[in-house]
Fold:
Amino acid sequence: MYYDKWAQVYDLIYGSKKDDVNFYKNEAKKVKGKVLEIGCGTGRIYLELLKEGVNAYGIDLSPAMLSSLNKKAKKLGLKTKIKKADMRDFNLRDKFSLIIIPFKAFLHIFTAEDQIKALKNINKHLLLNGKLIVNFFLPNYRLMASNYGRHIKRTIKTKSGKLLLIDKSYFVDEPNQIIEFKHTLLKNNKKIWSGKLRLALIYKKEFELLLKIAGFKKWEVYGGFNYGPLKSPTQEMVWIVQ
Structure:
């Protein structure tokens, strides 16, 4: 499973991302009852929920990601409730006050059939007044035109020195709205790791239709994590669904 390969570098590349953490912590603390994180990965958000005393569960497809999460939790003295499962067909025999799918994790599902299947399964796991919160980017035509196919570089500082991360994104299936990201890590101009990641592109009206088909009736979509309006394709779509 290619997600397991990402467990080697996930924290290195994305561990410093913080803009969504307080949002999900605050939303989790609002509810009484159990919270489920889908795509909990190495625990960037999940561990923060545990630190706040949230009764949090988690699922992920990658055993390596979950192993990394458990190791970090053990060091922090935290007990996890996580398991390997697929959002399309998991069955936890529990219902949740809140289910969250942070950081574009829903975009790892590529077909409308599977997206609807996942949303219906999530709906089945929510309590009557429960909420689903999911965030992912709004496809941006200008960004696609200017950046896709180009190499984007950034420096990552580590304890052992600096690494150069080179990203390249491009369409692999334009009719079905699937893009691929290739990441390469260099140290002293030598490649030490490379990996690919595919994501679906989902537009605002498209996701509204998916929610309706899956049986959801009420939602709000915000532009970012401050509950402001969605006005620009440069904003993250944050969906709060009931």
About this structure: The mean pLDDT is 96. The longest strand covers residues 161-173. Residues 141-199 form one domain. DSSP finds eight helices and eleven strands in the chain.
